[in-house]
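queue> pop job 88
queue> type: inverse folding (structure -> sequence)
queue> payload:
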């Protein structure tokens, strides 16, 4: 995904989350069981505003930001206003510009362009699911989300998944996107390639991404080979 495509996705996914919030703020979010829809919108909106602050005012660290929660009758518009301001900031700053991120190998605005599109897309699904109208994530965005899951989240695990060379083949069937994950003694590594694995996880990119983020059960995608290995791999990732 290009920076422009990520910002377009951020705007689209934000608008859809706001629409879900306009339907109902009170329902609890099944995939974030301690949150109502209102809490979810507040969470994502706060992240958006923090990233604006980080990029424009405080590029060397995340601490010191504070914000007041709006009332429920204003929260959807407050959220949309912040999403648009973030989109403009991400458009105005070059992807290579240095800024703090929680991922040491990539301290750039480009990291946030991608991460904010992905963060908003998955939480948009959360919000729509809570109000009974969950739509899949657009295939190319979801495929890049799977790639990000492997090249970013899997890399920063405090307790990396290990093994003795077991392999998991992950295949998004509606985009040319597939990976082989090897559980090595020193930790898991991903390679974007086609190869037979000890286990395979296959499905639409949206479903695979949501399964990796444990939004939907693995039963919603096709699992081949060693089911226990697939369960261990997906269940062993720290998503906090």
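queue> result:
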């Amino acid at each position: 995904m290009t920076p422009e495509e990520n910002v377009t996705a951020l705007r689209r996914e934000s608008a859809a989350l706001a629409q879900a919030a306009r339907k109902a703020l009170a329902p609890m979010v099944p995939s974030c069981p301690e949150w109502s829809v209102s809490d979810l919108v507040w969470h994502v909106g706060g992240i958006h505003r923090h990233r604006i602050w980080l990029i424009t005012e405080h590029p060397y660290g995340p601490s010191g930001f504070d914000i007041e929660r709006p009332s429920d009758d204003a929260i959807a518009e407050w959220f949309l206003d912040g999403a648009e301001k973030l989109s403009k900031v991400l458009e105005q700053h070059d992807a290579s510009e240095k800024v703090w991120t929680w991922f040491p190998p990539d301290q750039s605005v480009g990291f946030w362009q991608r991460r904010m599109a992905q963060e908003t897309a998955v939480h948009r699904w959360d919000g729509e699911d809570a109000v009974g109208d969950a739509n899949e994530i657009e295939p190319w965005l979801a495929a890049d989300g799977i790639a990000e899951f492997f090249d970013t989240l899997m890399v920063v695990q405090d307790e990396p998944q290990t093994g003795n060379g077991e392999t998991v083949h992950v295949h998004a069937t509606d985009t040319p996107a597939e990976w082989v994950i090897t559980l090595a003694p020193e930790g898991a590594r991903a390679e974007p390639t086609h190869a037979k694995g000890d286990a395979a996880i296959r499905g639409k990119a949206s479903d695979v991404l949501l399964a990796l983020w444990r939004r939907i059960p693995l039963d919603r995608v096709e699992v081949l080979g060693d089911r226990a290995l697939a369960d261990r791999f997906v269940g062993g990732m720290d998503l906090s």
